[in-house]
Design goal:
Layout lengths: L21 H6 L5 H10 L1 H10 L9 E4 L7 E4 L2 E2 L1 H5 L12 E6 L5 E5 H17 L7 E5 L5 H11 L3 E4 L6 H10 L4 E5 L2 E3 L2 E3 L1 H8 L8 E5 L13 E3 H6 L10 E2 L3 E7 L7 E6 H15 L7 E4 L6 H14 L2 E5 L10 H9 L3 E4 L1 H8 L4 H4 L8 E5 L5 H11 L6 E4 L32 E4 L12 E5 L9 E2 L3 H9 L6 E9 L5 E6 L3 E4 L2 E4 H9 L4 E11 L3 E10 L7 H14 L8 E4 L5 E2 L6 H8 L10 E2 L1
Parallel strand pairs: 4-17, 6-7, 6-8, 7-14, 8-11, 11-12, 16-17, 16-18, 18-19, 19-20, 29-30
Antiparallel strand pairs: 1-2, 3-13, 4-5, 9-10, 14-15, 15-23, 21-22, 22-24, 24-25, 26-27, 28-29, 31-32
Helix pairs in contact: 2-3, 5-6, 7-8, 10-11, 13-15
The structure holds 5'-O-[(S)-ethoxy(hydroxy)phosphoryl]adenosine (WTA).
Length: about 625
């Protein structure tokens, strides 16, 4: 296969094996990993049906899996359910009602503790606010908020009435937000006046107002007051969250939905064109996220779970909002920047709330490493029993630092590989599996993963190839909203009958998987998923730019960083000021995370005869690597 210069080289070492302690093994829910794995592989439908039985259904399914219209698989066909029934309603008749669902801390130190009972009331009220705003079953609602409890409340309220939420990450900006509002044809947008992040205020409402100056069909903007700063207001369109909630009734029946009814869409960057909206459903997604969370992190009633991701990405959807609530645990949500005001902010939170499981991204760990191990070591982190990693390959140095300095050498690290498309963990340890730093170990129960070459033949151990999944699983995205054909093309056409992940990987002789990186034009910056096409279109929207190309290059802290190559329009001259202006422009259009590290002015770009930019060549050149096969290059 084509070597991708933009990748993290895992060190495949068999010597570095970390065995779980007896205490971890004793506590583990799944003691015999091999037996469970074998059972699920041999009887996938029985395995998933048994997991589904652990949740509540209004009506039981007739058929576990319907493959008749593959790749548009259906799960738990005929079943009636609602994720909110399991996440909230089910707990109301048990003592869980008084247990804490969310422990929230603002960057300014303010705190809130929300019990399951209160969550039920708030979600009921907001569901009624949405209804009063004209939202009906199946309608899309765009949610663009900071990290406040009202974000999960808004998501759950949509789910409760069968509306489909589309959460846009609060770090995105005008163009990215506008495109997602338009593509989903949302009539309602839920936002905040602003958000506190790393000592600054992100003016979310202002960004919504700017996005809605462009063409749109939005009739209502509901704004939660967080910062109290002055905001623009459009009479008739805008309402304050607290005013709308004042008279809303907490009573609202949870809609009884088909298992395959849509729960949410979530836009994610792909290799070409505009971001695609992956669609997840109520039934299969509930079963999959609930099962993976309970088996991988072994969560119990008395756990304090902290998934430090943003609710605006799939990690937050699955493992801050839906799965932890279904599992009935207490989750921590922290609003702000990880090192604000000091590099021990996270460790103070772990100490204060006695967090028992911490799940975060390698980029955060690498960020903490720069400040030295004293910061975590000076805090009492003895409440921790498990750690987790997600979003990008974790380099063995970061793994070991995390293991020693945060986990005190006693907490296994669950390195979970998965994607927006997969809904939940796919390649992941459970606590009893011996670990190798940098490997996500083995496929989860019922997941059949295989690494293949260009021809679709299985690779030999340690040989690099494409990661594919052989059989459907309940948490899989069902389609791309509004573009089923693109779903089929992107994921199921390359190797018919298999799901194509877009990642390269290898498997070692022990059957452990090592993820190498993306093989398409997706760039992972600090674990955030961005598309080259989006960055390029933001650049081209600047009047000075004729053409642009974006690539990802390895970066010590962020995993990858964005480099861009720009051809200017006639009448514009290259200058450092213009390069800076273009960086700022991308930041304003797409969001600060998409700001290129470097803007280089060029006279031409390497292209194929059909006009496609050869980013692979740009990447190789930038790193002084061999440029590979250039036969398709147009000179
Ligand atoms: C990468 C995030 C290595 C991978 C949940 C994948 C990882 C993409 C890991 C999906 C991991 C995620 N080790 N790489 N543990 N987890 N990735 O959709 O390239 O934002 O295809 O979902 O992140 O990113 P997404």
């Amino acid at each position: 296969m084509t070597a991708d210069p933009n990748r993290t080289e895992p060190k495949v070492s068999h010597a570095d094996l970390y065995h779980p302690s007896d205490a971890v093994k004793r506590a583990a829910r799944i003691k015999d990993w091999e037996a469970m794995s074998r059972y699920a592989a041999d009887h996938p439908e029985a395995f998933w049906a048994a997991r589904a039985e652990e949740l509540g259904w209004y009506r039981k399914w007739d058929k576990v899996l319907d493959s008749s219209n593959a790749p548009f698989y259906k799960w738990f066909v005929g079943g009636k359910c609602n994720v909110v029934h399991n996440a909230i309603d089910r707990h109301q008749s048990t003592p869980k009602r008084n247990a804490i669902a969310y422990l929230w801390q603002g960057e300014d130190g303010s705190e809130r503790a929300i019990a399951y009972g209160e969550l039920a009331r708030e979600v009921g009220k907001f569901a009624n606010v949405l209804k009063a705003s004209g939202v009906r079953k199946g309608d899309r609602v765009t949610i663009y908020m900071g990290r406040v409890p009202e974000l999960p409340i808004a998501m759950l309220a949509c789910a409760k009435i069968g509306a489909v939420h589309s959460v846009v990450y609060g770090g995105f900006s005008v163009d990215a937000l506008h495109g997602r509002i338009q593509d989903s044809s949302s009539k309602v947008v839920v936002t905040c006046d602003g958000a506190f992040v790393s000592g600054k205020v992100v003016e979310l409402k202002q960004i919504v107002d700017d996005a809605l100056k462009r063409e749109n069909g939005v009739t209502r903007v509901i704004c939660f007051k967080r910062t109290g700063r002055e905001v623009g207001w459009v009479e008739g369109r805008d309402v304050w969250w607290h005013e709308a909630m004042k008279d809303a009734s907490p009573e609202c029946a949870t809609e009884q939905l088909d298992a395959e009814d849509p729960l949410f869409i979530l836009y994610t960057s792909g290799s070409t064109g505009k971001p695609k909206a992956l669609l997840h459903t109520h039934g299969g997604y509930s079963v999959y996220t609930y099962t993976t969370l309970r088996y991988v992190f072994d969560l119990r009633d008395d756990d304090r779970w902290w998934c430090a991701a943003d609710p605006g990405w799939i990690t937050g959807h699955s493992y801050i909002v839906y799965a932890p609530l279904m599992a009935g645990v207490t989750s921590v949500i922290y609003e702000g920047g990880p090192t604000y005001p000091q590099p021990d902010r996270w460790w103070k939170i772990v100490e204060q709330y006695k967090v028992s499981v911490l799940y975060c991204a390698p980029t955060a760990i690498r960020g903490f490493m720069r400040f030295g191990p004293e910061w975590p070591r000076n805090r009492d982190l003895s409440s921790l029993r498990l750690l987790g990693s997600v979003g990008e390959p974790i380099n063995p140095e970061a793994w070991k630092w995390f293991y020693e300095n945060v986990g005190g050498g006693r907490c296994p690290i669950m390195d979970t590989w998965w994607q927006t498309e997969t809904g939940g963990f796919m390649i992941t340890p459970t606590p009893v599996l011996p670990l190798k730093p940098g490997s996500g170990t083995r496929p989860f129960f019922g997941i059949k993963a295989e690494i293949v070459n260009e021809m679709g033949e299985p690779c030999k151990p340690d040989e690099e190839g494409y990661l594919t999944i052989l059989a459907p699983w309940p948490g899989m995205a069902r389609t791309i909203y509004g573009d089923a054909e693109r779903y089929r093309q992107t994921y199921w056409n390359r190797y018919p009958g298999r799901y194509f992940t877009g990642d390269s990987a290898r498997m070692d002789a022990d059957g452990y998987f090592w993820i190498i990186g993306r093989v398409d034009d997706v760039i992972k910056v600090s674990g955030y998923r961005l598309g080259t096409a989006e960055v390029e279109s933001a650049l081209v929207s600047h009047p000075a730019v004729a053409e642009a190309a974006a690539i990802g290059l390895p970066h010590e802290l962020r995993g990858n960083t964005i480099y861009t190559y720009v051809i200017l329009r006639a009448g514009h001259e290259p200058s450092p000021e213009l390069a800076e202006a273009l960086r700022q422009h991308v930041g304003k259009e797409m969001g600060p995370i998409a700001k290129p590290e470097k803007v280089e002015f060029v006279a031409k770009l390497p292209k194929t005869r059909s006009g496609k930019i050869m980013r692979r060549v740009l990447k190789a050149r930038a790193q002084g690597l061999p440029e590979g096969d250039l036969t398709t290059l147009e000179e």
